[in-house]
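> example.struct
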Protein backbone atom coordinates (compact mmCIF):
# COMPACT_ATOMS: atom_id res chain seq x y z
CA UNK A 1 0.00 0.00 0.00
CA UNK A 2 1.23 3.53 -0.76
CA UNK A 3 1.75 5.99 2.07
CA UNK A 4 -1.23 7.97 0.73
CA UNK A 5 -3.56 4.99 1.08
CA UNK A 6 -2.29 4.31 4.59
CA UNK A 7 -2.96 7.91 5.58
CA UNK A 8 -6.42 8.43 4.06
CA UNK A 9 -8.61 7.06 6.89
CA UNK A 10 -6.53 9.01 9.41
CA UNK A 11 -6.88 12.28 7.48
CA UNK A 12 -10.63 11.69 7.15
CA UNK A 13 -10.82 11.32 10.95
CA UNK A 14 -8.89 14.57 11.38
CA UNK A 15 -11.58 16.28 9.29
CA UNK A 16 -14.31 15.13 11.65
CA UNK A 17 -15.07 17.37 14.65
CA UNK A 18 -16.07 14.29 16.67
CA UNK A 19 -12.38 13.27 16.82
CA UNK A 20 -11.54 16.45 18.71
CA UNK A 21 -14.62 16.28 20.95
CA UNK A 22 -13.57 12.78 22.00
CA UNK A 23 -10.19 14.26 22.94
CA UNK A 24 -7.48 12.15 21.31
CA UNK A 25 -6.48 13.25 17.82
CA UNK A 26 -2.86 12.71 18.95
CA UNK A 27 -2.82 9.00 18.17
CA UNK A 28 -3.81 9.78 14.56
CA UNK A 29 -1.15 12.43 14.23
CA UNK A 30 1.50 10.13 15.67
CA UNK A 31 0.61 7.44 13.09
CA UNK A 32 0.69 9.94 10.25
CA UNK A 33 4.05 11.40 11.30
CA UNK A 34 5.47 7.87 11.29
CA UNK A 35 3.86 6.49 8.13
CA UNK A 36 2.93 9.34 5.80
CA UNK A 37 4.16 12.75 6.96
CA UNK A 38 3.38 14.38 3.60
CA UNK A 39 0.20 12.71 2.30
CA UNK A 40 -2.29 13.70 -0.39
CA UNK A 41 -5.96 13.82 0.54
CA UNK A 42 -8.37 13.50 -2.42
CA UNK A 43 -11.09 16.18 -2.71
CA UNK A 44 -14.41 15.32 -1.05
CA UNK A 45 -16.40 17.76 1.08
CA UNK A 46 -13.06 19.58 1.35
CA UNK A 47 -10.75 20.45 -1.54
CA UNK A 48 -7.81 18.12 -2.24
CA UNK A 49 -4.75 18.91 -0.11
CA UNK A 50 -1.35 17.81 1.11
CA UNK A 51 -1.45 16.91 4.80
CA UNK A 52 1.75 17.78 6.70
CA UNK A 53 2.27 16.35 10.18
CA UNK A 54 6.02 16.61 10.88
CA UNK A 55 7.70 19.64 12.48
CA UNK A 56 10.40 20.01 9.80
CA UNK A 57 8.19 20.22 6.72
CA UNK A 58 5.68 22.45 8.52
CA UNK A 59 8.40 24.88 9.56
CA UNK A 60 9.80 24.84 6.02
CA UNK A 61 6.40 25.82 4.60
CA UNK A 62 5.64 28.53 7.16
CA UNK A 63 9.10 30.08 6.73
CA UNK A 64 8.76 30.35 2.95
CA UNK A 65 5.97 32.84 2.31
CA UNK A 66 7.16 33.29 -1.29
CA UNK A 67 6.50 29.67 -2.27
CA UNK A 68 3.55 29.14 0.09
CA UNK A 69 0.96 31.88 -0.13
CA UNK A 70 -1.62 32.87 2.50
CA UNK A 71 -3.75 35.11 0.31
CA UNK A 72 -6.42 32.58 -0.69
CA UNK A 73 -7.07 31.52 2.93
CA UNK A 74 -5.39 29.88 5.90
CA UNK A 75 -8.09 27.50 7.14
CA UNK A 76 -9.57 24.37 5.62
CA UNK A 77 -13.06 25.25 4.39
CA UNK A 78 -15.64 22.89 2.91
CA UNK A 79 -15.84 23.43 -0.87
CA UNK A 80 -19.50 24.46 -0.52
CA UNK A 81 -18.47 27.53 1.52
CA UNK A 82 -16.42 28.97 -1.36
CA UNK A 83 -13.57 31.42 -0.88
CA UNK A 84 -12.78 33.01 2.47
CA UNK A 85 -14.25 36.54 2.47
CA UNK A 86 -11.00 37.80 4.05
CA UNK A 87 -8.88 36.59 1.10
CA UNK A 88 -6.38 39.25 0.07
CA UNK A 89 -7.90 41.66 2.56
CA UNK A 90 -6.91 40.77 6.13
CA UNK A 91 -3.42 40.72 7.59
CA UNK A 92 -3.39 36.94 7.97
CA UNK A 93 -4.73 36.36 4.48
CA UNK A 94 -2.33 38.51 2.50
CA UNK A 95 1.10 38.27 0.96
CA UNK A 96 3.66 41.08 0.49
CA UNK A 97 3.47 43.95 -0.27
CA UNK A 98 0.00 44.17 1.24
CA UNK A 99 0.99 42.00 4.21
CA UNK A 100 4.01 44.20 4.89
CA UNK A 101 1.89 47.39 5.00
CA UNK A 102 -0.75 45.90 7.31
CA UNK A 103 1.77 44.10 9.52
CA UNK A 104 3.78 47.31 10.03
CA UNK A 105 0.68 49.16 11.26
CA UNK A 106 -0.75 46.41 13.49
CA UNK A 107 2.51 45.06 14.93
CA UNK A 108 3.65 48.66 15.49
CA UNK A 109 0.62 49.31 17.66
CA UNK A 110 1.58 46.40 19.95
CA UNK A 111 4.78 48.24 20.93
CA UNK A 112 5.96 48.02 24.57
CA UNK A 113 4.29 51.34 25.52
CA UNK A 114 0.81 50.15 24.53
CA UNK A 115 1.39 46.68 25.97
CA UNK A 116 2.33 48.24 29.32
CA UNK A 117 -0.90 50.20 29.31
CA UNK A 118 -2.90 47.06 28.49
CA UNK A 119 -0.97 45.09 31.08
CA UNK A 120 -2.06 47.39 33.97
CA UNK A 121 -5.68 47.07 32.86
CA UNK A 122 -5.26 43.33 32.48
CA UNK A 123 -3.71 42.77 35.92
CA UNK A 124 -6.55 44.69 37.57
CA UNK A 125 -9.22 42.83 35.62
CA UNK A 126 -7.64 39.42 36.32
CA UNK A 127 -7.38 40.16 40.07
CA UNK A 128 -11.02 41.19 40.31
CA UNK A 129 -12.34 38.35 38.14
CA UNK A 130 -10.49 35.64 40.06
CA UNK A 131 -11.41 37.24 43.41
CA UNK A 132 -15.11 37.10 42.45
CA UNK A 133 -14.82 33.43 41.43
CA UNK A 134 -13.00 32.48 44.65
CA UNK A 135 -15.62 34.31 46.74
CA UNK A 136 -18.39 32.22 45.15
CA UNK A 137 -16.29 29.05 45.47
CA UNK A 138 -16.87 27.85 41.91
CA UNK A 139 -16.53 29.01 38.34
CA UNK A 140 -17.26 27.83 34.82
CA UNK A 141 -13.69 28.78 33.90
CA UNK A 142 -14.10 28.88 30.10
CA UNK A 143 -17.05 31.25 29.94
CA UNK A 144 -16.52 33.25 33.15
CA UNK A 145 -12.76 33.87 33.03
CA UNK A 146 -10.97 32.56 29.92
CA UNK A 147 -13.56 34.09 27.55
CA UNK A 148 -14.32 37.35 29.31
CA UNK A 149 -10.82 38.54 30.18
CA UNK A 150 -9.40 38.47 26.61
CA UNK A 151 -12.61 40.07 25.34
CA UNK A 152 -12.23 42.95 27.81
CA UNK A 153 -8.64 43.38 26.64
CA UNK A 154 -9.59 43.32 22.93
CA UNK A 155 -12.33 45.90 23.56
CA UNK A 156 -9.72 48.06 25.32
CA UNK A 157 -7.19 47.98 22.47
CA UNK A 158 -9.80 48.41 19.77
CA UNK A 159 -11.12 51.42 21.71
CA UNK A 160 -14.68 50.04 21.97
CA UNK A 161 -16.57 52.42 24.29
CA UNK A 162 -17.55 50.97 27.70
CA UNK A 163 -21.26 51.31 27.00
CA UNK A 164 -20.96 49.12 23.84
CA UNK A 165 -19.02 46.29 25.53
CA UNK A 166 -22.05 44.31 26.77
CA UNK A 167 -23.32 44.13 23.16
CA UNK A 168 -19.92 42.95 21.87
CA UNK A 169 -19.73 40.37 24.66
CA UNK A 170 -23.20 39.07 23.79
CA UNK A 171 -22.54 38.92 20.02
CA UNK A 172 -19.11 37.33 20.47
CA UNK A 173 -20.51 34.69 22.80
CA UNK A 174 -23.26 33.92 20.29
CA UNK A 175 -20.84 34.01 17.33
CA UNK A 176 -18.68 31.31 18.98
CA UNK A 177 -21.10 29.32 21.09
CA UNK A 178 -24.71 29.69 19.86
CA UNK A 179 -26.47 26.40 19.20
CA UNK A 180 -27.32 26.86 15.52
CA UNK A 181 -25.13 27.93 12.59
CA UNK A 182 -27.77 30.53 11.70
CA UNK A 183 -27.58 32.18 15.14
CA UNK A 184 -23.79 32.13 14.97
CA UNK A 185 -23.67 33.81 11.59
CA UNK A 186 -26.33 36.41 12.56
CA UNK A 187 -24.26 37.38 15.61
CA UNK A 188 -21.22 37.66 13.36
CA UNK A 189 -23.05 39.98 10.98
CA UNK A 190 -23.98 42.20 13.95
CA UNK A 191 -20.28 42.43 14.83
CA UNK A 192 -19.29 43.38 11.26
CA UNK A 193 -22.04 45.98 11.16
CA UNK A 194 -20.92 47.41 14.49
CA UNK A 195 -17.31 47.70 13.29
CA UNK A 196 -18.44 49.45 10.09
CA UNK A 197 -19.99 52.20 12.24
CA UNK A 198 -16.97 52.39 14.54
CA UNK A 199 -14.50 52.66 11.63
CA UNK A 200 -16.50 55.51 10.03
CA UNK A 201 -16.46 57.28 13.39
CA UNK A 202 -12.69 56.84 13.82
CA UNK A 203 -12.03 58.02 10.29
CA UNK A 204 -13.82 61.23 11.21
CA UNK A 205 -12.28 61.52 14.71
CA UNK A 206 -9.15 59.34 15.11
CA UNK A 207 -8.13 58.21 18.60
CA UNK A 208 -5.06 56.31 19.85
CA UNK A 209 -6.67 52.87 19.50
CA UNK A 210 -6.02 50.13 16.96
CA UNK A 211 -9.24 50.75 14.99
CA UNK A 212 -8.02 54.30 14.33
CA UNK A 213 -4.63 52.92 13.21
CA UNK A 214 -6.31 50.49 10.79
CA UNK A 215 -8.70 53.16 9.54
CA UNK A 216 -5.64 55.24 8.62
CA UNK A 217 -3.64 52.51 6.82
CA UNK A 218 -2.83 53.38 3.21
CA UNK A 219 -1.92 50.80 0.60
CA UNK A 220 -0.75 51.69 -2.93
CA UNK A 221 -1.45 55.34 -2.24
CA UNK A 222 -5.07 54.97 -1.10
CA UNK A 223 -6.80 54.31 2.22
CA UNK A 224 -7.99 50.71 2.69
CA UNK A 225 -11.63 50.22 1.65
CA UNK A 226 -14.08 50.20 4.58
CA UNK A 227 -14.81 46.47 4.19
CA UNK A 228 -11.11 45.62 4.47
CA UNK A 229 -10.72 47.63 7.68
CA UNK A 230 -13.85 46.01 9.12
CA UNK A 231 -12.61 42.48 8.29
CA UNK A 232 -9.26 43.23 9.94
CA UNK A 233 -11.01 44.49 13.10
CA UNK A 234 -13.11 41.34 13.12
CA UNK A 235 -9.98 39.17 12.74
CA UNK A 236 -8.36 40.89 15.71
CA UNK A 237 -11.49 40.32 17.77
CA UNK A 238 -11.57 36.62 16.87
CA UNK A 239 -7.77 36.11 16.99
CA UNK A 240 -7.49 38.01 20.23
CA UNK A 241 -10.18 36.08 22.05
CA UNK A 242 -10.70 32.56 20.75
CA UNK A 243 -7.16 31.18 20.91
CA UNK A 244 -6.37 32.84 24.24
CA UNK A 245 -9.53 31.36 25.74
CA UNK A 246 -8.55 27.89 24.57
CA UNK A 247 -4.89 28.10 25.60
CA UNK A 248 -5.79 29.44 29.03
CA UNK A 249 -8.49 26.88 29.79
CA UNK A 250 -6.66 23.90 28.24
CA UNK A 251 -3.51 24.95 30.10
CA UNK A 252 -5.33 25.16 33.41
CA UNK A 253 -6.82 21.71 32.86
CA UNK A 254 -3.32 20.37 32.15
CA UNK A 255 -2.18 21.81 35.51
CA UNK A 256 -5.15 20.15 37.22
CA UNK A 257 -4.33 16.85 35.53
CA UNK A 258 -0.66 17.16 36.59
CA UNK A 259 -0.70 18.25 40.24
CA UNK A 260 3.09 17.96 40.54
CA UNK A 261 3.43 20.60 37.79
CA UNK A 262 0.86 22.86 39.48
CA UNK A 263 2.87 22.56 42.72
CA UNK A 264 6.08 23.48 40.89
CA UNK A 265 4.44 26.58 39.46
CA UNK A 266 2.94 27.65 42.80
CA UNK A 267 6.14 27.08 44.73
CA UNK A 268 8.32 29.16 42.43
CA UNK A 269 6.02 31.26 40.28
CA UNK A 270 8.50 33.87 39.03
CA UNK A 271 11.11 31.31 38.00
CA UNK A 272 8.64 28.91 36.36
CA UNK A 273 5.85 30.95 34.83
CA UNK A 274 7.48 31.79 31.48
CA UNK A 275 8.42 28.20 30.63
CA UNK A 276 5.02 27.08 31.98
CA UNK A 277 3.22 29.39 29.53
CA UNK A 278 5.28 28.08 26.59
CA UNK A 279 4.39 24.54 27.63
CA UNK A 280 0.70 25.43 27.94
CA UNK A 281 0.84 26.86 24.41
CA UNK A 282 2.60 23.77 23.04
CA UNK A 283 0.31 21.39 24.93
CA UNK A 284 -2.96 23.04 23.92
CA UNK A 285 -1.94 24.08 20.37
CA UNK A 286 -5.40 25.54 19.97
CA UNK A 287 -5.01 26.43 16.27
CA UNK A 288 -5.06 22.88 14.90
CA UNK A 289 -3.89 23.81 11.42
CA UNK A 290 -2.93 26.54 8.96
CA UNK A 291 -3.15 26.20 5.19
CA UNK A 292 -0.99 27.64 2.42
CA UNK A 293 -1.18 27.44 -1.39
CA UNK A 294 1.96 26.58 -3.39
CA UNK A 295 2.96 29.27 -5.88
CA UNK A 296 5.49 26.97 -7.64
CA UNK A 297 6.26 23.26 -8.08
CA UNK A 298 8.30 22.19 -5.08
CA UNK A 299 9.56 19.01 -3.38
CA UNK A 300 8.39 18.51 0.18
CA UNK A 301 9.32 15.51 2.32
CA UNK A 302 9.94 13.41 -0.81
CA UNK A 303 6.61 14.32 -2.47
CA UNK A 304 6.09 16.54 -5.51
CA UNK A 305 3.82 19.45 -4.59
CA UNK A 306 2.50 21.26 -7.66
CA UNK A 307 1.88 24.96 -8.16
CA UNK A 308 -1.66 25.72 -6.94
CA UNK A 309 -1.82 22.76 -4.52
CA UNK A 310 -3.23 23.36 -1.08
CA UNK A 311 -1.00 22.40 1.86
CA UNK A 312 -2.35 21.82 5.39
CA UNK A 313 0.11 22.24 8.28
CA UNK A 314 -1.15 20.40 11.39
CA UNK A 315 0.48 22.58 14.08
CA UNK A 316 -0.77 20.41 16.92
CA UNK A 317 1.03 17.44 15.40
CA UNK A 318 4.28 19.39 14.90
CA UNK A 319 4.19 20.28 18.59
CA UNK A 320 4.20 16.60 19.56
CA UNK A 321 6.93 15.58 17.13
CA UNK A 322 9.52 13.50 19.06
CA UNK A 323 12.22 14.64 16.62
CA UNK A 324 11.96 18.08 18.27
CA UNK A 325 10.51 17.51 21.74
CA UNK A 326 11.84 15.02 24.28
CA UNK A 327 8.93 12.97 25.68
CA UNK A 328 6.45 15.10 23.71
CA UNK A 329 3.40 13.63 25.45
CA UNK A 330 4.66 14.71 28.88
CA UNK A 331 3.45 18.04 30.26
CA UNK A 332 6.54 19.71 31.72
CA UNK A 333 6.30 23.31 32.98
CA UNK A 334 10.10 23.60 32.98
CA UNK A 335 10.61 22.32 29.42
CA UNK A 336 13.56 23.97 27.66
CA UNK A 337 14.13 24.35 24.82
CA UNK A 338 10.51 24.59 23.69
CA UNK A 339 10.41 25.89 20.13
CA UNK A 340 6.76 25.06 19.55
CA UNK A 341 4.79 26.27 16.54
CA UNK A 342 1.53 27.03 18.36
CA UNK A 343 1.86 30.71 17.36
CA UNK A 344 3.16 29.93 13.87
CA UNK A 345 6.58 30.99 12.60
CA UNK A 346 7.98 33.18 9.81
CA UNK A 347 6.46 36.40 8.54
CA UNK A 348 2.91 35.57 9.73
CA UNK A 349 4.09 34.71 13.29
CA UNK A 350 1.26 35.67 15.65
CA UNK A 351 1.17 39.43 16.09
CA UNK A 352 -0.62 39.04 19.46
CA UNK A 353 2.05 36.76 21.01
CA UNK A 354 3.21 39.09 23.78
CA UNK A 355 -0.31 40.09 24.66
CA UNK A 356 -1.52 36.46 24.79
CA UNK A 357 1.34 35.59 27.16
CA UNK A 358 0.60 38.60 29.38
CA UNK A 359 -3.04 37.51 29.62
CA UNK A 360 -2.20 33.92 30.54
CA UNK A 361 0.39 35.12 33.05
CA UNK A 362 -2.05 37.49 34.76
CA UNK A 363 -4.58 34.70 35.29
CA UNK A 364 -1.95 32.21 36.48
CA UNK A 365 -0.56 34.78 38.90
CA UNK A 366 -3.99 35.35 40.43
CA UNK A 367 -4.80 31.63 40.58
CA UNK A 368 -1.54 30.73 42.30
CA UNK A 369 -1.95 33.64 44.75
CA UNK A 370 -5.66 33.49 45.50
CA UNK A 371 -6.67 29.84 45.10
CA UNK A 372 -5.86 27.27 47.78
CA UNK A 373 -7.33 24.17 46.22
CA UNK A 374 -8.99 23.73 42.82
CA UNK A 375 -10.81 20.68 41.59
CA UNK A 376 -13.22 19.72 38.86
CA UNK A 377 -16.90 20.37 39.51
CA UNK A 378 -18.19 18.22 36.63
CA UNK A 379 -16.81 16.81 33.40
CA UNK A 380 -15.04 19.28 31.09
CA UNK A 381 -16.47 19.26 27.57
CA UNK A 382 -14.41 19.66 24.41
CA UNK A 383 -15.30 21.55 21.23
CA UNK A 384 -16.06 19.58 18.09
CA UNK A 385 -14.28 21.91 15.69
CA UNK A 386 -11.53 20.93 13.25
CA UNK A 387 -10.17 24.50 13.30
CA UNK A 388 -9.63 25.04 17.02
CA UNK A 389 -8.88 22.34 19.53
CA UNK A 390 -9.88 22.86 23.15
CA UNK A 391 -12.50 23.11 25.84
CA UNK A 392 -16.10 24.25 25.65
CA UNK A 393 -16.48 24.09 29.45
CA UNK A 394 -14.30 23.66 32.53
CA UNK A 395 -16.37 23.67 35.73
CA UNK A 396 -14.19 24.23 38.81
CA UNK A 397 -14.56 24.36 42.58
CA UNK A 398 -12.18 26.77 44.26
CA UNK A 399 -11.18 27.30 47.87
CA UNK A 400 -9.33 30.45 48.94
CA UNK A 401 -5.61 30.34 49.66
CA UNK A 402 -4.69 30.61 53.34
CA UNK A 403 -3.85 34.21 54.26
CA UNK A 404 -0.14 34.79 54.65
CA UNK A 405 1.40 36.34 57.76
C1 LIG B 1 -2.74 31.69 22.71
C2 LIG B 1 -3.19 32.56 21.87
C3 LIG B 1 -2.94 32.60 20.40
C4 LIG B 1 -2.64 31.59 19.52
C5 LIG B 1 -2.46 30.11 19.83
C6 LIG B 1 -2.50 32.19 18.21
C7 LIG B 1 -2.14 31.50 17.05
C8 LIG B 1 -1.76 32.12 15.89
C9 LIG B 1 -1.11 31.48 14.77
C10 LIG B 1 -0.79 29.99 14.69
C11 LIG B 1 -0.88 32.41 13.81
C12 LIG B 1 -0.16 32.22 12.48
C13 LIG B 1 -1.11 32.20 11.30
C14 LIG B 1 -0.40 31.93 9.99
O1 LIG B 1 0.80 31.63 9.96
O2 LIG B 1 -1.07 31.97 8.96
C15 LIG B 1 -1.41 33.68 14.32
C16 LIG B 1 -1.39 34.86 13.62
C17 LIG B 1 -2.12 35.96 14.04
N1 LIG B 1 -2.64 36.19 15.29
FE1 LIG B 1 -2.59 34.91 16.84
N2 LIG B 1 -2.75 33.53 18.31
C18 LIG B 1 -3.03 33.83 19.63
C19 LIG B 1 -3.29 35.08 20.16
C20 LIG B 1 -3.55 36.20 19.41
C21 LIG B 1 -3.95 37.50 19.93
C22 LIG B 1 -4.10 37.83 21.41
C23 LIG B 1 -4.15 38.30 18.86
C24 LIG B 1 -4.61 39.72 18.81
C25 LIG B 1 -4.20 40.63 19.56
C26 LIG B 1 -3.84 37.54 17.67
C27 LIG B 1 -3.92 38.01 16.37
C28 LIG B 1 -3.28 37.39 15.31
C29 LIG B 1 -3.17 38.00 13.97
C30 LIG B 1 -3.76 39.33 13.55
C31 LIG B 1 -2.42 37.11 13.19
C32 LIG B 1 -2.00 37.26 11.74
C33 LIG B 1 -0.54 37.72 11.67
C34 LIG B 1 0.00 37.81 10.26
O3 LIG B 1 -0.54 37.17 9.36
O4 LIG B 1 0.99 38.53 10.07
N3 LIG B 1 -3.47 36.28 18.05
N4 LIG B 1 -1.91 33.47 15.60
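> example.seq
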Amino acid sequence: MSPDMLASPDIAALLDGATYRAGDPFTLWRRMRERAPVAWHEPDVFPGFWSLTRYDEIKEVLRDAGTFSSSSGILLRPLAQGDDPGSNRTLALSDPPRHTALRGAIAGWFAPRNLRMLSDFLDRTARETVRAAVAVGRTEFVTEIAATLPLDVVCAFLGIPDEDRPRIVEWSTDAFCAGSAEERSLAHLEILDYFAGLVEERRARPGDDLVSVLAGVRHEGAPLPLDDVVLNCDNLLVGGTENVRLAMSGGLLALLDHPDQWDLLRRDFDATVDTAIEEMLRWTSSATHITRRATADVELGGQRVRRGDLVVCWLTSANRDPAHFTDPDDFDVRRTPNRHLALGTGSHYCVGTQLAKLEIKAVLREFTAQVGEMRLDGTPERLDSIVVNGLRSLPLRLTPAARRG
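> remarks
The chain has one domain: 3-400.
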